[in-house]
Specification:
By secondary structure, the protein is an alpha/beta fold. Helices cover about 30% and strands about 25% of the residues. It has a single domain, classed as DsrEFH-like (Hypothetical Protein Ychn, Chain: A, 3-Layer(aba) Sandwich). Helix 1 packs parallel to helix 2.
Length: about 110
């Protein structure tokens, strides 16, 4: 089973990577897409989880039209939003992680 995790909010990246590591440990194929920001790999806990994720066979993609240089992120791949939109249909599950809170349609 192929799973794509989409992360838009920096505050949730560590939780999302942990979820990805757990999914890979359960023999699922996981690709991680970071939308329009670079993670802070100065955070040792995040760096450790990213390395685990990559060592277990996961792939991390930076989705951006503007980020030109990935010199500190040589293990990451870069992809445009247009390319991602073509690729997203290949996944069995697409998990948007850490999206901003939405108002409920049923709140009065």
């Amino acid at each position: 089973m192929k799973i794509a995790i989409l992360i838009k909010n920096k505050a949730f990246i560590l939780d999302a990577i942990r979820a990805g590591v757990d999914m890979i440990a359960k023999n699922l194929e996981v690709d991680f897409y970071i939308l329009n920001f670079l993670p802070d790999l100065g955070n040792s806990d995040l760096k450790e989880k990213v390395n685990w994720f990559l060592d277990l066979g996961g792939k991390i993609w930076i989705v951006s039209e503007t980020l030109e240089e990935l010199t500190d992120f040589s293990k990451f791949n870069k992809i445009s939003l247009k390319e991602l939109s073509k690729r997203i249909g290949e996944y069995n599950i697409v998990l948007p992680y850490g999206l901003p809170h939405q108002k409920s349609l049923f709140s009065f």
